[in-house]
Amino acid sequence: MLKQIGRDFEPEGAIVSVSDAKYPLPFARELEFNAPAHGNWNIVHIGMLIPEAHEIYVGSDNCMRGVVMTAAEMNALDRYSTVMLEEEDLLDGNLEDVTIEGVADVIRKLPYRPRCVQVYLVCLHHFLGSDTDRIFGELEALFPDIDFARCWMDPIMQKTGLTPEQKDRKAILDPVQPLPVNHRSVNVIGGDLPMHRENDIAKVLSAGDFTVRQLPTNRTYDEFLAMGESFLNLCYYPSGDYAVRMMNKRLGRDYLYLPSDYDDEAICRNLKELTAQLNMKDIDPTPWMEERDRALQRALSAVGKMPVTIDYMSTPRPLSLARALRKKGFQVQRVYLDAITPEEEADLRWLQKNAPDMELASTMNVKMRVMPRGTEPVLAIGPKAAWFGGTSHFVNMIENGGSWGFGSLTFIAEEMIRGVREEKDTRDVVPRKGLGCACCL
Predict the structure, then answer these.
(1) What is the pLDDT of residues 135-171, one digit of tens each?
(2) What percent of the chain lies above the pLDDT cut of 70?
(3) Beta strand residue intervals within 35-79, DSSP E
C-alpha cells in the first residue's frame, strides 16, 4: 500500500544507534532517495583519465542527459560523442549493426584521430543480448590504429555483480600492455585523485627514488601506456581493487592492495608490507605519528565540543575515521553510510562497545529527504554529511583527498581546522560533481 511521506514521523529505519546497527546492512533495501550532493566521480570523469582518448556513448536520448552534462561541466565536450538509438533500432533486431555503424561514423567525422576510443554500451545491449565481441571485433578491424576500451553505462547492474564504476575502471586500464619490466617504476592506480603530499605511500616511494605512475598525472597517451613497464601495481582505493587485479593478471606483475585505515597497527603493518615489496629497509613512522598527533591536538582545540559527522564519500573508511577521532576526544556524533564493508567490521564492533551513543544514518532512505537539518552547529567531513547536516562548516573532501596513512589524519586535521574557521556556501558547493577533476569546481 502506498503511504504519504510527511514531515512528522520517527527516524526508524533511516537512523540507528551504532549499538543496534546490524552488519553488513544496517538499513533495509527499499525505495531510495538520491541526495543532491555529488562529490564522487562518475563514469564520464573516470573515463577522461585516459589522455588523448574519446568517449562514445551508445544509447537512447533519456540516458544521455546526465553524461553529456558531466562532459560539458568538465569543458570536455570535444572528447565526448553519442550514438542515439531510436525505437526502430530495437524492433528491427539490428542493434549490433547500428552500434558499429554509429561508432564508426563518429570516429570518421572527428576533427582529430583519437589514440583510444571508449565505447559505452547501455542496458539495452543487455536486454537484447547483443554480441559485444562482434561489435568490438568489427570496430577493431575497421580501425586497427585505435585502442578500443569496452565500457558500460548499465545502472540496472548497480547491485548485481560488478558495478558500472568497477567495470569502467577495468576497461580504461585494458589498453595498457606489458612492456620490458622496469624495477624502478611503480604504478599507483585505482583511485581518481593523485597522491597528496600527506600520503605515506608517496613518501616511501620518494625515499626509494622510484618513478611513480598515476592515472591522474598522465598527460599523454604514451605516458599512460608506459604504465605497462612498472614492476608493481599498487592500489589503496577499494573501488579500484578489481580493476587493478585484472590489469595485474594480464600483465603478470606484482600486486599490492593497501586499503586506507586510521588504526596505528594497521598502518604500520601496511607500511612494513610496502617496504618489503620494494626491497627497502623498514621506515620508522614515529615522526609521522608525532606530526599527526600535533595536528589532531590543534584540531581538537579548534573544534572543541562541536559535534562531528562523517560520510562514506569523504573516505572509504568512515567508521575507521570515526573510531580514530573518538579516541582523540572528538565528539563524532553520526556517520552517514548505507552498508558496512568487511574491512570495517572490526571498527563497527569497537564503536558499539566504546561509543554506543554514536549514530549511523542512511543516505538513501526516503525519510532522509525530509529529516530536520541544521538544528545545531556541526562540523561535517564530506559533502553528504554537510548536506544532511545543513551546515556551512565542513571538510569538502572525497577519497581522503588523495591522502593515506598517518599523513591522512594530519591532512584531515588541518582541513577540520579550516572547516571550523571558514564557512562555505553549502547549497553552491556540494551539488558540484567530480570534486578534484577538471570540472566547474
Answers:
(1) 999 999 999 999 999 999 988 766 667 888 899 999 9
(2) 96
(3) 53-59
> Which of 247, 277, 307 is a domain's end point?
277
- Give CA–CA dist 175/140, Å, rounded: 13
Residues 200 and 232 in one domain: yes
Same domain, 400 and 305: yes
Note whether residue 8 is domain-resident: no
Residue 3, domain member (yes or no)? no
Q: d(Cα 125, Cα 104) in Å, to the nearest integer?
A: 18
Residue 137, number of CB atoms within 10 A of its CB: 13
Domain boundary among 138, 172, 206: 172
Same domain for 200 and 164: no
The gap from C-alpha 277 to its chain's centroid, in whole angstroms, comes to 26
Same-domain pairing of 215 and 194 = yes
Q: 318: domain CATH number?
A: 3.40.50
Q: Under a CB-based contact definition with an 8 Å cutoff, are residues 383 and 377 in contact? A: no
- Given a cut of 80, whether residue 110 has pLDDT beyond it is yes
Burial of 60 (0-12, 13-18, 19+ CB in 10 A): middle
pLDDT score, position 441: 45
Residue 319 falls inside a structural domain: yes
Higher pLDDT, 302 or 374: 302
Count up the domains in the chain and report the number.
3
Amino acid letter for position 160: T
pLDDT digits (tens, 9 = 90+) for 184-199: 999 999 889 999 999 9
Asked whether residue 78 falls in the same domain as residue 113, the answer is yes
Mean pLDDT of the chain: 93
Domain range enclosing 354: 15-37+286-429
